[in-house]
């Protein structure tokens, strides 16, 4: 798992700077951001299952998933910068027409999941529940405003 975290951290540091230039095709940008958001949602969902009581609480597993979520939260945004989209994309036009609002929403989510990561390291389930709820609200807000159903 440490290797996975190291790779994710390296990707989060390097990929955003290089990603924008790599999306020569709309399909590449859409596939990249959907893949990053899928992984983000997967690890966030694992924490959500614990918060909802659908999975047992293991503080180490929650902390590992929270760390991955914090790292992955930085990856999708460069793939939106070029305004590239296709028929597979669920991004609403507002993602590209109101870039400041979209960027603000992304930053709020990154801040909330960073807080969740910090709280998860402490291992207190009640605090994790609160931080998870705050992070989930930022996800919902972005989906409501910028993702087609």
Automatic annotation (TrEMBL):
Pfam families of this UniProt entry? Cytochrom_C_2
Gene3D superfamilies, alphabetized:
Cytochrome c/b562
User: How is the protein altered post-translationally, as described in the entry?
Assistant: Binds 1 heme group per subunit.
- Span of the signal peptide: 1-21
Positions of heme c binding? 139, 142-143
A GO BP term here is: electron transport chain
Does Cytoplasm show up as a keyword for this record?
Answer: no
Keyword Heme included in the entry's annotation: yes
> Gene Ontology terms, cellular component aspect?
periplasmic space
GO MF entries: electron transfer activity; heme binding; iron ion binding
Report keywords, A-Z: Electron transport, Heme, Iron, Metal-binding, Signal, Transport
Q: What is the protein name given in its UniProt record?
A: Cytochrome C
